[in-house]
Amino acid sequence: STTTSSSSSSPPSSSTKLPLSSLPPFEKFRVLHVDPMVLCVDDFLTSDECDTLVALTDNPKYDKNANTAPMKIGQSKTVGKDMYSKSQRTSTTWFHHYRGLPQLMAKASRLLGLDNIDRWEEPQTVRYRRSEKFTWHLDALGPSDELAKSGGQRVATLIVYLADLPEGSGGSTMFRDLGGESGEPLKVHPKKGSALVFFPAAGGIPNVPFDIRTLHAGEAVSDESEDDKWIAQLWLRETKYTPTAPPGNTHAAATDAISKYCNV
Fold this sequence. Notes:
Layout (H helix, E strand, L loop, with lengths): L28 E5 L4 E4 L5 H9 L15 E5 L2 E2 L7 E2 L3 E4 L6 H10 L12 E5 L5 E4 L16 E8 L11 E3 L10 E3 L6 E4 L17 E3 L10 E9 L17 H7 L3
Antiparallel strand pairs: 1-2, 2-12, 3-6, 4-5, 6-7, 7-14, 8-13, 9-12, 9-14, 10-11, 10-13
């Protein structure tokens, strides 16, 4: 593994190899669909790690000038600017510094066999309250999407459920075209600590920049639910990605925190 001197006057390269192989392998896999591949990894984050991510959203102890506070977006409106990505989302999103979420960044890269984090978009946490949802959409970027100029296409989606929701409370992640013979969509119900992984641009129709079979939605949280739905989400790009939020966010700044998390 590569170690970085804390006395260096410049930050380490974001492509520095991280000691991710020191983390234990994941063992609790569930294959939910084969083609396209949809996987669930139980116990991806510990219960305490989930609670930490939720607590980071509105922590009054943050020093707003220390480049560690998350950026709250507030309620999201229409997502996307072209015919491929028009959808509606009613939720609240926080963009986080990579160095503030070493547990998520380390485990996400370990899961996908990476030795650094420089292809990941900014980590986000999202809260859905009663009746809030995300309508049918694709995670892959359309031909006119400006986001593709940095890092290229989104090749993997990782969603981590940070809290349990009781059965019947809604909030499932639904894949419209991946259901069984009953015609019902494939549903993944929020289970605290579990991660959902799929690949939004890995197959489907030739010469189409995304896999339309991965069309999915966030089911509305029930009006009667006493609990909010909380998730963390990450998207992996084809090549090195340049983060834009929060201000001052860099992959390189997370090197020390991730190495410490990996006990190196």
